[in-house]
Amino acid sequence: MRKFLTIAFLLALAGCQSGKPPEQQPASFALSFSADASSEALDGRLLLILSKDDKSEPRFQVRPGVNAVQIFGMNVDDMAPGDVIALDESVFGYPHDSLSELPPGEYFVQALLHKYETFTLSNGKSVKLPMDQGEGQQWAESPGNIYSEPRIVQVGRAATAIPIVMETVIAAIEPPTDTDFIKHVKIRSELLSEFWGRDMYLGAHVLLPAGFDEHPQARYPLAVFHGHFPADFAGFRTEPPDANLECEPNEREQLTCYNRIRQQEAYDFYQKWIGPDFPRMLIIQVQHANPYYDDSYAVNSANLGPYGDAITYELIPYIEKQFRGIGEGWARFLYGGSTGGWEAFGVQVMYPDEFNGTFASCPDSLDFRHYSAVNIYDDENAYRMEGDFNTVERPAYRDYLGNISVTMEDENHMELVIGDKTRSGGQWDIWEAVFSPMGEDGYPMRIWDKKTGVIDHEVAAYWKENYDMRHILERDWDTLGPKLEGKLHVFVGDMDNYHLNNAVYLLEDFLEKSTNPYYSGVVDYGDRQEHCWNGDQENPNYISRLRYNSMYVPRILERLLTTAPDGADLTSWRY
Hints:
The protein is built from twelve helices and 25 strands.
């Protein structure tokens, strides 16, 4: 016994002399929420964010890539007020996978509970998802979510967990109010309510033409401006820029007062809108946030439900009836950029008789052989190009010079932390939710393993037959071609930040060389232009991306006048 104690003492002494601290547990956190925040037990995703920057709340700093902050996430079920949840080294994080990898030091820390609700779908499956609360599926600012006030915390190896209490509830959002020009519509969708097993709604912001009240006999064409969740009609302002506006810089464009430019452009559009020579029509921006994302991609989906039919056959006819639309396919048009670009293109293809033309800018991948930087049919791994002796990371984001700042793994691992089972509300997850079949558990089937990047080619085959636009056009051109002749217009920068131009090259190759009848549309590229170039060869991208309405409405008028059927109303709305 004495010999054993002596050896133990000497080992301990050697440890002290070497400067090594006594062994302790890795850092961990004890997370809870107060009864003042909620008196009920909650389901959801528990998030912990750590930053080195205390100039803004950590929940607003979460991003992928070089400038990422640390975030961890875990599911909780029936978490009651006062319950303490341990977040330790076993919880997956980004960019460090585990708390055990986090360097010791001082961090600006915040916790947030992103609430889930239970949906019993029409097929009997039950899923837990975050219901949009009018914010457009933004977990960091979704009403009802609970968060802690950020504070400085010393993180290291400690014997006790660091307590964090969430006490603040994000307040409800006030809906926008109607004005003389902008009206707000909300309808219960029977199709979506049946699918989701509860009341589901669609909304829209409707921009009325000048002279709407003064011309009660007029019937108007309709343009659908697709894009991400709009809080109100974007890009329209009846007042000049605020004289006392505090400037907000745009670092990417190196502009010191981009918010003033935005206000000026919105006011300029208003002046064109009321001018004597501008076409009179209705323009709508659709609100179709859902439990997976800030919009639905405007097509039918196994996981989101029949949003395409609901928008096309419920919402649009309702708006046309309320605001004197012509209500026929020859007088309806589509345009948008990025997500809205894919929607504008995809809806025209899926509903070829219901719309008379699309102007799709910087559209999300229209050919999944270039799904950003991945070929989902031939590649084995979405995150890495793999050779016999080496692997290279696949890029997700570049600038116009080709500099890479975010990888595919960055974006997907960050999403996996924010929400498993395709519940992050992020870009890759919504593509998966829209394009994939539903799994046995009621959630979307993964196109690839979210941790490793290994691609599921059976799921890829489903994507191809249902949502690969170039493939669908080629497969069905005998029937689609005559209906789409002259309707397809696509614009993209050849240095799109998300590599979206690559899929457009493949689309153009088919349209230009293989179509009979010839597609008679437009595919145009912006030299060294980034996301989201929209066909303006004269102005910098930061200006032209604010001019979707003023750019495309005159082109819509030109097509409308040259394709309207005999006997069509081409006069009541032209005043």
